[in-house]
Amino acid sequence: MNSKIEKLIKQFAKLPRVGNRAAQRIVLSLLQDKTGRAAQLSAALNDAAENIAPCPVCGMLTDRDASACEFCRTASRANGQLCVVRDVGDVWVLEKSSVFRGRYHILGGLLSGAAGTMPDDLNIATLPGRIKDENITEIIFALPNTVEGKTTQHYVMSVIGDNCGAAFSELASGVPLGGDLDFLDDGTLSLAFGGRKTI
Length: 199
Fold this sequence. Notes:
Structural class: alpha/beta
Oligomer: single chain
Radius of gyration: 19 Å
Strand order of the largest sheet: 4-3-5-6-7
Number of strands: 7
C-alpha cells in the first residue's frame, strides 16, 4: 500500500469509534471521489482548526474571537439551571433531544487514574465562580453512569461545596450502568432528565 495512503488511514483510525476497516473505507471514498470532497474536507478542517476554540465561560466550541458561546449569551437560558457534562458531544445529544434549556458546563473529560486524567486537566476551577455570578439554583450532573463518571461527579461536588446555594441533582435510572448519553434514544433521555433525583 502507498505510504501516503497508509498514513492517512492511520490518522482516521485514531478518531473515536473509527476502526481500521472504517478508516480504509473513508480514505478510499475520499480518494476516489470526483467532486473534490477531499479538498473540501481539508479546507473545512483547516478553517475549523484555525477559527474554533472552547468558550471561555462554559467550554463549548465556538468562534475563537467570541467572548462567549451562543448558550452563554442567550438570556433565556439564564434560568438558574446549569448542566455539567463530560464533553461537547453530550451537549449536542441534549440539544437534539430538547430536554434541557439552561446553560452548560463542559468538563472536557472525566477523572481517570488509568488514563492519567487529573483534576487540573478538567474545566472545574471556574465552576464556583459561575454558580455565584450566574445565580445558579440547580446543578444537574449528566455524566456517564460509570466509575469515572461518579468519581468525577463527587469530586466536582466537593470543589463546589455544600454552601454554594444550589441544589445538586443527577439523571434518573433511565441511564444504564456504564451508559453514555449518546447511546440513549430521545425518549429514554427525556425520562432520565425529567425524573432526575436530588443528590
